[in-house]
């Protein structure tokens, strides 16, 4: 690993703000901006570790989800919901090299919309719900479980 | 904003004032949609020396909301005239040459701010008093004769089914504008649901638009002032109640961070002498979560594209998971 690492550099920048900049600031607003920046740099430092795993997890899960939905491509369930074409497009996006994440997320938005509008039911609905649960869990871990007002 | 230019401006606005001085002008945090400055104004008039605590709110270069300062000032003025607890608005300046960007000046109310849940260290009786005031002010706001107050300029919905439609469309458009090419499946689904399930209100009232914990000042006597009127519009009274009681503002059982949820609803019904339409309340809680998520996206978009340098903006990214999770639970997406 190249030294200094990005994390070491970010930690150094935090010390610069706290030890060199902050003591020179007389305005409470500027002080608050400086300490907020330090806190955000801590979040970014944590994301350096967590973000690659989050991205890889999202892409792998979307790919697996659309592969599972592709099995249902000829089902009445997807046809009735008007989602057969969407599922086909997402399947293609999932299996291109590299997978087209934005196209998959856009298709997932359409799937989720059909679910809340009760146009999608049965096994397809359960596959989409399963992805949503895992997706939100990954986001929660990435966000560090930070909840306002707690 | 600098002291000399502000002093010159106030001298022009207060021609009878002598020995006018702006004291301790400083930018303060809060009110992220505008730059907010605190200062004291001293002057002599009729042989007497006066001192008044004031706030200047200036348009940002970017920020959370794209609203008009004239609109906020006129709303504040109408609320002050109607006896709603708001800081007195004093001067509105639209000429950008005066202080680089439009701004307005209002009285600076003193009090404490409660962010999220009401501070646990405060006495339980004070929390109850603040909860009562919070709902009293809301009910008073919703009973205002907005035509008599000249608030038609906010845009009068053409029918009782218009407010839900207008709000869902408005926030969906901002989502499309500020999502920076990303798709958030939960938000896509939420806006699809909101557009497919509009509710019909029973009357058109003033809607504060951001009625929640964190947007009032209180002291030991209760609420002193309701703040941040930049999203005020005419619409469904359930919108403010839904927004105020979102899980997001106070995790756990406390609606608005103040009172157990069902007790909060019962107290509102008692004070307003109306029954809460639970379907409409639910609609506006879903809209509220989606709207807050979009406000976060706008803040991040403006920060990364250089329209604001406020260090709070990137933190909004961290708030998104909780909002999306609430939406997914509400809409049974999980």
Largest interface, counted by CB within 8 Å of the partner chain's CB: A-B, 39 and 45 residues
Strand order of the largest sheet of chain B: 1-2-3-5-4
Count of DSSP helices of chain B?
A: 10
Summarize the biggest pleated sheet of chain A.
none
Give the count of structural domains of chain B: 2
Catalogue the unreliable spans of chain A.
none
Strand content of chain B: 15-25%
Question: How does this structure look, described?
Answer:
Chain A has six helices and no strands. Chain A folds into two domains: 45 residues; 89 residues, no CATH class. Helices cover 75% and strands 0% of the residues of chain A. Chain B is of the alpha+beta class and 334 residues long. Chain B has ten helices and twelve strands. In chain B, strand 1 and strand 2 form a beta hairpin. In chain B, helix 5 runs antiparallel to helix 6. Chain B is globular. Chains A and B meet through helix 2, helix 5 and helix 6 of A and strand 1, helix 6 and helix 10 of B.
